Amino acid sequence: MPQVTIEQIGKFAGENVQLEAWIHNIRRSGKLLFPMLRDGTGFLQAVVVKGSVSEEIFTICRSLTQETSVRLSGHVRAEERAPGGHEIEIEHLELVQEVPPDDPFPISPKEHGAEFLLDHRHLWLRSKRQYAVLRIRHEIIRAIRDFLDSNSFICVDTPILTPAACEGTTTLFQVPYFEEEVAYLGQSGQLYNEATAAAFNKTYCFGPTFRAEKSKTRRHLTEFWMVEPEMAYADLDDVMALAEKMIIAVVSQVLANRSTELALLDRDVSKLQMIKKPFPRISYDEAVAILQKKGSDIEWGDDFGATDETLISEEFEGPIMVHRFPSAIKAFYMQPDSVRPELALGVDVIGPEGSGELVGGGQRIHDYDLLLEKLREHDLPRDAFEWYLDLRKYGSVPHGGFGMGIERCVAWICGLKHVRETIAFPRMLNRMRP
Ligand code: 4AD
Ligand code: MG
Question: Which of 133, 165, 223, 255 has its CA 20 to 30 A from that of 406?
């Protein structure tokens, strides 16, 4: 008898198979039992018929508790009414570990509060919704890698222990680094990407990112994952074109491979199906005008607040790209616009449906003297950036790239309000456990 997973079950209709699974829940109806099985690859309705199995097995099955682990065998058949289109009639079942009835699995099918669920995140991960979200997350990550790898990008990992800031010094986690030295947990691999792009032309890093931000919003984590592509010989338009192409590739791969999971989340996929080129490119000036018209009290020179991002996304159906922000509100490394040097050649991609900023990036300063001036303006220690300045000394070229936060992207594609469910073990201002 073949040993199969639920994901493969459709291929075994009409056959007898063995499964290793957990009891997701169980419905009892007289002579029939309907345990819902899960094995991490899917959910499968089982049926146990009194009289068709031994009295002993029927008794065991009748008292199955939620999350009890079981090995079983049975007959697979197509069943239109069953979720997934198949069911298995259990013929034999063996308990691997029984969850005691007097100490049941803490997450029952009834409603639980968000804090309770987060406290039990290690167990909450087994729920259908988390199953769907994290499988979609995996597909998003795979789509990003597929896209970059097939477009000549080389993955070059950047360090996590770093001596200096990239995105501003206020949000750094410090760790002691042997005698008298302090290291900071990386808040972006970008500066290192600029070195690797000069060596390999198109590169990316993909890893955990740390921000000691005291913001308690539905879009902020203190540890999140970011993919950061960087290109040599590239300008702002190239950066925007790449972000657009990558986002479209991600959405279409998720739609193609994760429709079951999107359906489990009741995601309105029509909103994803219409994501197409070109994304509107809106200057910061235009964005401020739109926001003011919509009643925001934003003034020229202000950064967007979360509500501004939501307001502006309401004006459009898909992601939009806001470019040319005032340099004053952006990082030191941003190339100034040649016509209006008070503007930085940066871009933020604002996701639809209130998902907020998905991507931040732009063109970097490639001129040595200008970069040195910006370091001074931002009070950054020159010696820590000597290596970064070197990149402007030896074959410097216009270059740029961006960072996309994986959790924001997952939240958008899954239609989740809060990023806390988009990562297995979220780290937030007030949460480091479990
Ligand atoms: O806009 P950010 O800060 O850009 C950078 O770090 C650039 N150095 C990237 C680059 O050009 N290589 O961050 C990029 C993205 C944001 O658009 C957002 O999606 C995500 O990272 N992000 C966060 N996600 C979750 N929690 C946080 N605290 C985040 N901060 C940024
Ligand atoms: Mg940003």
Answer: 165
Answer yes or no: is the C-beta of 359 below 6 A from any ligand 1 atom. yes
Which residue has the least CA distance to atom 1 on ligand 1? 360
Q: Within a 10 A sphere around the Cβ of 207, how many other Cβ atoms? A: 15
DSSP letters of 2-43? -B--GGGGGGGTTSEEEEEEEEEEEEEETTEEEEEEE-SS-E
Q: Which ligand is nearest to the CA of 204?
A: 1
Question: 289 CA distance to ligand 2 centroid (A)?
Answer: 20
User: 190 to each of 101, 162, 397, 403, how far by Cα in Å?
Assistant: 52, 12, 16, 8
Nearest residue CA, atom 6 of ligand 1? 188
Question: What is the predicted pLDDT for the residue at 365?
Answer: 98
Assess whether the C-beta atom of 400 lies below 6 angstroms from ligand 1: no
Non-local CB neighbours of 270 within 8 Å, separated by 6+ positions: none
Which two tokens mark 90? 């259990």
Edge-first strand order for the sheet with 223-232 is: 154-155, 202-210, 223-232, 399-405, 356-364, 343-351, 320-326, 281-283
Buried b (16+ CB within 10 A) or exposed e, 61-97: beebbbbbebebbbbbeebeebbeebbbbbbebeeee
Regions of the chain with pLDDT less than 50:
none
In this predicted structure, what is the pLDDT of residue 405?
A: 98
Decide whether any atom of ligand 1 lies within 6 Å of the 47 Cβ: no
Q: Is 405 in the pocket of ligand 1 (CB under 6 A)?
A: yes
Closest atom of ligand 1 relative to the 348 alpha carbon = 17
Could you give the C-alpha distances from 161 to 174, 210, 427, in angstroms and in order? 9, 10, 18
pLDDT at residue number 166: 66
**Tokens representing 155?**
């993955």
Q: How many CB atoms lie within 10 A of CB 234?
A: 22
* Inter-axis angle of helices 284-293 and 306-314, nearest 10: 80
